[in-house]
Amino acid sequence: MRCDFADSLLQGYFDSELTASGEAEFESHLQDCVDCAGELVELDILRGRLQLEQLYEAAPPSFRKKIRAKLQPAIPTIAMSQQLRWRWLAAATALLVLSIAGWRFNSAFHSEDYRTELAAELIDAHLRSLQPGHLTGIRSNDGQEVKGWFTGKNTLAPPARDFANDGFALQGGRLDVLKDLPVAVLVYAHTGHLINVFVWPTRERDTSPHAGSLQGYQWIDWRKGKMEFCAISAASAADLHELQRLFAE
Amino acid sequence: MAEFDEELHLQPAATPESITIANNERERLTRALEALPPRFREIIVLRELEGCSYKEIAAIMSIPIGTVMSSLSRARRQLCLALADRSCKEVVREM
């Protein structure tokens, strides 16, 4: 049996069309409603499938412009800030749902579990990288050269920059695997510690850093420019915050 | 720490196999869309493929916004059912 919200608030929430109070109401409901959370996942998957290239031929821009002009009075006048805030909130909850679906779907929604599990996988990758011959695919302190190496691998080219003057010397980069998919990794050395900065693409907005520690290792995660970064090291949390600050500049 | 977005990973160059899979998926989606009642197909196209807001959809289809929501809900469910050979739930279970 479907939840009563499935035909109303859930659709509006998924499409970022609710008012602020409607959004708050649904997010509160979402905490306890596994059915709605599951349906959000289904809707997201369906939307993803519909984005398939060549499925739909869009109208030419000139024709589209004419139609839009005729519809102008009907176009919503919601303030941009509200729309952006909506998208962020919707994305955050969708992330919570999708991440748990991706990392063992179950009825309990504990974002900390997800963070811990992903951090654990990244720490494993960090430890593997410390084995002889595994640290770098390209060894260089030249950011352009490292970035070019990633580009040549037909993968995401992260912003490779040498911060040696600030104590974080670029060592090189490599491709690693996370959840069976390649991720770019930048390697830095700082006060005797190696720091792996894992980088993968994201659709989400920039976020401030979120840090934690596990098994004696520190991690810090942030998003910038449609990329998500996660730095892992045995260095101190303060050191990772400093490196994050350098990336953010 | 946020979601690891698998979809955004650049895919290797297209292979005959990947092209065939994409073609099959496109045919499956096209068949499912064609199987929808015209009003449901219209609302799915407006929202998911044209990116129209609810207000725009309401204006185009001459229906109240509340009806946009409920129609979208039914249209999406029917589309999921029409894709029953590989339903949304199955995809979730595979994850």
Q: What structural keywords apply?
A:
heterodimer, A: seven-stranded antiparallel beta sheet, 44% helix, globular, B: 95 residues, mainly alpha, Arc Repressor Mutant, subunit A, disordered C terminus
Number of domains of chain A: 2
Structural class, from secondary structure content of chain A? alpha+beta
Shape of chain A: globular
What's the helix-strand series of chain B? HHHHH
Please summarize the sheet with the most strands of chain A.
Answer: 7 strands, antiparallel
Average per-residue pLDDT of chain A, rounded, comes to 76
The structure class of chain B reads: mainly alpha
The CATH homology group name of one domain in chain B: Winged helix-like DNA-binding domain superfamily/Winged helix DNA-binding domain
Task: Characterize the largest beta sheet of chain B: strand count, sense, and whether it forms a barrel.
Answer: none
**Quantity of strands of chain B, as a count:** 0
* Model regions low in confidence, pLDDT < 50 over at least 5 residues of chain A: 75-82, 84-89, 91-110
CATH topology of one domain in chain B: Arc Repressor Mutant, subunit A
Q: How widely separated are the two ends of chain A?
A: 51 Å
User: Which oligomeric form is depicted?
Assistant: heterodimer
What share of residues are in beta strands of chain B?
under 5%
The total beta strand count of chain A reads 7
What is the beta-strand fraction of chain A?
Answer: 15-25%
